[in-house]
Amino acid sequence: MTLRKTPLVVAGSAALLALSACSGGDQKAAAGGPITVEATDTACTVSATTANAGNLSFEVTNKGTKVTEFYLYAQGDRIMGEVENIAPGLTRKLTIEVPDAGTYQTACKPGMSGDGIRGTFTVTGGASRQADTNTQLADATKSYATYVASQSDALLTETQKFADAVKSGNVADAKARYAPTRTYYERIEPVAEKFGELDPAIDVREADLEEGQQFTGFHRLEKDLWATGLQPDSGQIADKLVADVTTLVNQAKTIQLSALDLANGAKGLLDEVATGKITGEEETFSHTDLWDFQANLDGSKAAIQSLRPVLQERDPQLVSEVDTQVKNVQTLLDAQRSGDGFKYYTELTQDQIRQFASAVDALGEPLSKVAEVVAQ
Amino acid sequence: MTQVSRRRLLGFAGAGVALAGAGAAAGAGLDHALSAPEPHAAPGLVPFHGEHQAGIVTPTQEHLHFAALDVTTKDRAKLVSLLRKWTDAARRMTGGQEVVPNGAVGGSAAAPPGDTGEALDLPAASLTLTIGFGPSLFDDRFGLADRRPPALADLPAFPKDNLDPARSGGDLCIQACADDPQVAVHAVRNLVRIGFGTTEVRWSQLGFGRSASTSRSQVTPRNLFGFKDGTNNLKAEDTDALAQHVWVAPGDGPDWMTGGSYLVARRIRMHIETWDRSPLREQEQVVGRAKGTGAPLGQSAEFDPVDLHVGGANGEPLVPADAHIRLASAENLNGVRILRRGYNFVDGSDGVGHLEAGLFFICFNRDPRTQFVPMQKVLAAKDAMMEYLEHTGSALFAVPPGVTETGYWGEPLFG
């Protein structure tokens, strides 16, 4: 299900770790109120050129005749914060988190182009912290990347077979392949969801369609197979699914993930279970929610497995708590196995659903603490 | 025995104290029975009469009881008669009085009391009663089909809606707000009672902890996600903006709606358990504000204007592309604004070990087709917060203008 829009997607991993490490909640700005910046067409007058590390507030007034913008750069012209489109006469405020001591540069850009009028800005105090050179974390992301690659390959192979079954009109075969094929997708869902347009094309639920959005992907074929019977365009939908999965698989193998991504992904998969699978909303027509449930749990375990050496060193108790709760969820799932797969969602009693929800919550709690440990 | 009168208690409490907040001439809200000895405005009394119904831009009270009703008769005269009775009862109850004089204990011992009595001894508690007409009232039962305002168009299906018919729709609605939940419940209960034989309750909702402020005299409350909610709401003091975004103007549609507004109610289940497991930074990025101060990201204080153009590390917008306040902003919606007046709710548990909690969203707007609908389309499709929300109930009502001292609710429609 297309739900999670992790806000941590785009920025580089090293910067992310540095930022997250100080998310402890110190909201106070540096003492002395905002630093005023008077921008004209030829000058950029900053009222202070030093500040303590933390939240810095700038108040930028454009006294020139051109639209301007203001930047704070770290070394290498890495942007720490910026405010654009300041029309003449306007004052705009900007609060930036600067956790590290060091030398920075302020810049006004009259006309919004060029390198701007630069000035040196010194930040003192704070925790001058190194970039993420921790080899354990690097190993973790490498190990997880291998997992993503293996799952992606299997996803493509199985999706092709599933699509072939749909196209040949072999409904029984297609139905049998549906849930196992999706397993590979559900295991790497946090990665898949980083591709904004592809994930909805592959995995959108009918209830989530936006106006004018075409209903494609797995769930469309699910509806064809279980509810309406195959449609004249089912074959086309199957072809499109294979094409979309191919694109996704290629991109998934190149994506750069941070250790925090892994931690948040492990938790996110459980959230998916809690909001989509526990309620039976994901597989409305086939009721194969438990296959997805197991796959989400697998994916979560894989991410934790990659992080295990780091976690074991930093917080062994948390690891053992995660392990215990994973085992509890797995025990409940195992009790619902049937043949090669699972019982259908509709065969579960309310009491069993409640037990699942409770076990998922119990696992979600320790999982939600993993990111903080990784960011230490 | 000595009559215990809600009126007397009020007069005692209210002597010489000016009404806080926006309503200047609170005394005007008292009906004639009450007006005699009390020249001063009393606290906790919101005027009932006026150009607009109370309960829209009057300062939001702490508690809500909202009820949607279906009309069970096809007799137009019975419906009109009910609206007259309701108006009379509302005049009295919003004035801190019993539904009928000596209603609770002063009547015949052999008859059921005329007032149910659970608000006896309680002050008016700023009670407001606001009523609205649902689209279904304009079918062929009461000859109103040609008077249906075009703006009272059925809401479209929004992505991710999971609406329960048993919590949606209705021919009529009653919004009762008060600073004491017992007073709000008493008001709805007595109106429902008066309606037996003409109306029946279709669904109802209790709310607590107003989740928005509608006046600059109020501090911004927090919703169940722990965030300040309603900082950027339209306020009673913004009269020009209210005229533009809330009140139906002449020429907008049928004349009977002039001075009225359209109420959208959405029961929004909040998945607070998964929310509570998400990191503070993610919570703040989903909302677009700092949790502690309520300041928009990139700014330092709650009421600093939201600036969608500031960037942080690597030039990424500090208010993310899918942040709630960005998508809901007037800037992102071609200037569209609404007046929110929602409440938190917790309705026990959902049966699988989670709290059935959320926000009972109420908003008022001049034309839902150009305000609420486009806003909700964007939010349902893109808002990062939707991951934690589920819309489980929905209703739309035309809220007619206010009533005169001798008129009744909806008189311009039926008269």
Quick tags:
heterodimer, A: 376 residues, alpha+beta, 4-stranded mixed β-sheet, 49% helix, disordered N terminus, B: 415 residues, globular
Describe, in plain words, how this protein is organized in 3D.
The complex is a heterodimer of chains A (376) and B (415). With 376 residues, chain A is of the alpha+beta class. Helix content of chain A is 49%, strand content 17%. Chain A is built from 12 helices and 11 strands. In chain A, strands 3-9-8-5-6 form a 5-stranded mixed β-sheet, with no helix packed on it. Chain A has a 4-stranded mixed β-sheet with strand order 2-1-4-7, with no helix packed on it. Chain A has a two-stranded antiparallel ribbon with strand order 10-11. In chain A, a hairpin with a 3-residue loop joins strand 5 and strand 6. In chain B, strand 8 (343-349) and strand 9 (355-365) form a beta hairpin. Chain B has helices at residues 6-14, 32-35, 76-94, 181-195, 239-245, 272-276, 280-287, 324-327, 372-382, 411-414; strands at 63-71, 128-133, 172-178, 199-210, 261-270, 310-311, 339-340, 343-349, 355-365, 389-399. The radius of gyration of chain B is 22 Å and the shape is globular. In chain B, strands 1, 2, 3, 4, 5, 7, 8, 9 and 10 form a 9-stranded antiparallel β-sheet that branches. The model of chain B is unreliable at 7-41 (pLDDT under 50). In chain B, helix 3 (76-94) packs antiparallel against helix 4. The interface between A and B is large, with 58 and 47 residues.
Question: What characteristic shape of chain A results from the CA principal axes?
Answer: elongated
Percentage of residues assigned to helices of chain A? 40-55%
Poorly predicted tracts of residues of chain A:
1-30
Give a short account of the largest sheet of chain A. 5 strands, mixed
Q: How many individual β-strands of chain A?
A: 11
Could you state the oligomeric state of the chains shown? heterodimer
Q: Roughly what percent helix of chain B?
A: 10-25%
